[in-house]
Structure formats: structure tokens, C-alpha cells
Amino acid sequence: MSNSGKVSVGIVGASGYGGVQLVRLLLDHPEVEVVYLGGDSSAGKDYGDLYPHLYNKVKTKIEPINLDAIASRCQVVFLGLPNGLACGFAPQLIAKGCKVLDLSADYRFKNLDTYTAWYKTEREDKDIASTAVYGLPELYREQIKNSSLIGCPGCYPTASLLALAPLLKQGLVLPETIIIDAKSGTSGGGRQGKINLLLAEADGSLGAYGVAKHRHTPEIEQICSDLARRDVKIQFTPHLIPMPRGILATVYGTLTDPGLVTDDIITVYKAFYRNSIFVEVLDKGIYPQTKWACSTNVGYIGIEVDPRTGRVIVMSAIDNLIKGQAGQAVQCLNIMMGWEENLGLPTLGFYP
């Protein structure tokens, strides 16, 4: 515990968009105290220089990454690092008694051969990786409660899996027919300068990327296979849309029972998510918009059945930086610590 009696928390990789979301959320969290902000290239800089809107709230510098120092001060550590780095840090932090929540892809995979094939990083932490729990609370809440290592999901998988889970769990859709068409705001590309994210490049344009080879594909397939209790392959195509934040995933699948109608599927979804305070299943004829979820940890789901084609269409809207990243990590922390799941998390954004 910190001197205040609160749980002491550190954030490694605090300078990125995911890091600053964590800082903002944890500053308002009644049970935690942020005692360490760490980074590599940003080490030594005042946090308020990186994010001037927090200048009067965060009077601390970014510190170098020193695992001994982190473990001596922190009970919980969030790792907001590029893929391939957390797997070198987490085993040491776990061994020193810290709880770890990783926001990269390093601990999302049960089969590390799959991770290596897609992320081109060899792993030497198989024992620790085998203890990691996939941090999607709506599906793995009970496992998260007893874990010390959480692999927080990607933003596209979060939106897509919230849309697909009830269909696959209840066997309502033919898995081989699943298509995910998803669109994300530019913050999903991170804070580092990239030509395709420049205003002149992205504004007024909409385009696909990572077609048939995006790294979130095997992550989505892994959880879909778990839900369906069989090997599942999906067609996933992401798009970049010129807005700062938000994801809309539109999912298509052929129903196993062509006699089902929209009201039937909505009933299934509302029952499936009846204990999930961060999922809003919308009534018939209401389709979600990303603006509704902006700056909140809520996912909005709309459903329609097309009787002409025998397909179900599920639309899922989230904030990619909150429910798709930092907010979901805090949600997992709340579950791990036995706190109320919504503690410190926003459920209503500003509109418009």
C-alpha cells in the first residue's frame, strides 16, 4: 500500500495515448495512487510537458524503466509498451510480487507459436505466459478475479468479440460465414508521427489496411474458437476513418436457424449481457454510433436480422482508447482487487 492507504500503481509506457488515458482514469480512482510513470525515450521529461492539459494535475517526471525500483514501489503495474517488450518485463515483476496488466499483445495468446508467427518475436516466458488470463471481463470475469497477469485485449477484438460472443456461445451462427468489417479512429495508430495519420493524408478519406493479414485476426479467432468449441477462422478487414477516437465493428454471419428474427437475437443478447454493466444492447431498429461511446467504457450493440439472406448483422461501437484499451484494463484491475467493476470508470460521455 502507498502512504495514503491506497493501492500503489505504476504505468510503464505512460507517454502514449493508452498511458495518458490510464493516468486520467486512475487520477479519479478512489482506491489507487499513481506512484510511478515510466518510459524510455521520454524519460526525464515532465509529464506536464508531454500533456500540458495535465500540467497542474501531474507534478512528476517520466522515470527510466527500472524493474527493481518499480517493484519496490508498486503493487500493480500497467504495461503500455510496444509488442514484444512486456514479455521481458512481466515475469520479473510477477516474481517480485506485482500484479501486471499488459496492454500489448504479448499475453493475449494461449499458443505462443501463434504469437511468434504473427508478431515475429521468440518467447522464453512460457511458464508465466501460461498463467495469463485474457482480459475481456464480459467473457472471463471469474478467471480475472484470481489472476496476477492479464493480457488486455486489442481494441478491434474487443468490439468484434462483444458483437460475436452470444452468437458463437449459443451456436446461433455458422462460424465459417463470419465477416467483420471494422473502422477505427486515428488514435488507434498511436502518438508517434506516421504519414498515413497526418491530417492531409487521413482527412476526407476512408481506406482499408492490413487486409487478410491484420495482427488482430488470430486474437479474434482464438476467442471465437473458445466460444464455439471448435476451430474458427474469420474474415476481418479494418479501416482507418478520419476521426480521433472510436471503433465501429459491423459483423455478419449466416444463422443456423433461418427462422430466427431480430427480436429473438436481441433477447439472447440481453440475457447474455444481463450482468455486464458496460454493454448496452439496443432495442430493435436502434443502431450504435461511435459518438455515444466516446470517452466512456461502454460498448453499444445493435442487431438486425435480414430474413432475405438468412444473415444476422451485429453492430458494435466502443471508444478504442477506453473500452478498447485503458478503461478495460482498469475494469480488469477492479475485478482483480475485488472492487466494484465500474469504480473510477466513465459511463456517460459528452454529447454531441
TrEMBL record:
Enzyme superclass (EC): oxidoreductase
Name of a matching Pfam family: Semialdhyde_dhC_1
Subcellular location: Cytoplasm
UniProt KW Transcription regulation keyword: no
Gene Ontology CC terms: cytoplasm
EC number(s) reported in the record: 1.2.1.38
Record: active site: C155
PROSITE patterns on file: ARGC
Domain Semialdehyde dehydrogenase NAD-binding: 8-147
Major location (coarse): cytoplasm
Alphabetically ordered keywords of this record: Amino-acid biosynthesis, Arginine biosynthesis, Cytoplasm, NADP, Oxidoreductase
InterPro entries: AGPR, AGPR_AS, AGPR_dimerisation_dom, AGPR_type-1, NAD(P)-bd_dom_sf, Semialdehyde_DH_NAD-bd
NCBIfam families cross-referenced by the UniProt entry: argC
Task performed by this protein: Catalyzes the NADPH-dependent reduction of N-acetyl-5-glutamyl phosphate to yield N-acetyl-L-glutamate 5-semialdehyde.
UniProt record similarity statement: Belongs to the NAGSA dehydrogenase family. Type 1 subfamily.
PANTHER family: N-ACETYL-GAMMA-GLUTAMYL-PHOSPHATE REDUCTASE, CHLOROPLASTIC-RELATED, N-ACETYL-GAMMA-GLUTAMYL-PHOSPHATE REDUCTASE, CHLOROPLASTIC-RELATED-RELATED
Name of the featured protein: N-acetyl-gamma-glutamyl-phosphate reductase
Originating species: Cyanobacterium aponinum AL20115
